[in-house]
Amino acid sequence: MKEVLEQAEKAAVLAHKNADPDALASAVLASKLLGCWGIRSCIFLPEGLSKASKRIAERHGLGVDQCSIEDVHGSDALVVVDSGSLSQLGDAGGLARGKPLIVIDHHSTNNILENADAALYDPNAGSTTELALAALLEECCSIDRDTAILALHGILHDTRRLARPGTFTLYVLEALRIEGITVEATIDVQQDKTPDLGERVARVKGLSRMKADRACRDLIVCVTHIGSYEGSVARAMLDVGCDIAVVVVDRREGYRIAVRASKNAQAKGITADWVASYLAGKYGGEGGGHKAAAMLHAPHFKPAPEDAASEIARTLPGRIGRACNGVEH
Ligand SMILES: [Mn+2]
Fold this sequence. Notes:
Blueprint: E1 10-15, H1 21-36, E2 40-44, H2 51-60, H3 69-74, E3 77-81, E4 101-105, E5 118-121, H4 128-138, H5 145-158, H6 169-178, H7 187-191, H8 197-208, E6 211-215, E7 219-226, H9 230-240, E8 244-251, E9 254-261, H10 263-267, H11 272-283, E10 286-289, E11 293-298, H12 305-324
Parallel strand pairs: 1-2, 1-3, 3-4, 4-5, 7-8
Antiparallel strand pairs: 6-7, 8-9, 9-11, 10-11
Helix pairs in contact: 1-4, 1-5, 4-5, 4-6, 8-9
The protein binds manganese (II) ion (MN).
């Protein structure tokens, strides 16, 4: 990886829009890795931090040195972390060509890899954070306590608090333990999880507008639209019994669509990333993610989000029915 950056003096690290704790932590770790190779860098987070990341940064008093899009323009090289497609990078996506490019990621599909000069890619990793941290440890770079705690949050977030560990999860947790950083360090933030009023309003509204239909005999396909908190709304939909949850959010540049799939749906081959790719194929844009959770950025294929949600609610159950009956996939 290092060879790719031979000519580089300053680099920009890019993470996906609305950076979740894994995106944030892997960006910070990538920046540290560049630092120990003698390359200056800053971190560009399109649309800033997610709610969970903000909470972590606030509770631990962590500041992230973020750069502007001009800094990204002016950098000699790019490192893209925790992103499976260029559309996840927002305005910075267009800049990912013409400069040396390194990708660090664990998404089950990644179409940035084809443009990359080097990659640290493992779809079986539980988090991008653990990949970046393993690289950092291999380079024998030291890691400060704040970064170690942030890394732990990144890993816990993407592995669902270790319910779904990946290739390097336990290896890097052991390394953190030796540094004196254990899950205990994150408990304050985790306990502070009572959703605020805005989030509860979003969940209730999202559920009250929800349309649901059956597919494949025992799958419930649910679709709704909301102004924000789409991840929380989608989780609430699974909690009430949906197998596929699709949540449409209206954004200036198009629709952001969150998809979640239950274990039951995944067992039938109906995964969240499959649904996101199907929707991208039908309505445009790019989608990707994991079996349980995926995201799609689509153009405004209907003028209003409620119409977009209705359209998906009308067509998706039929498509899922055909897929799980093996008619086509
Ligand atoms: Mn991730």
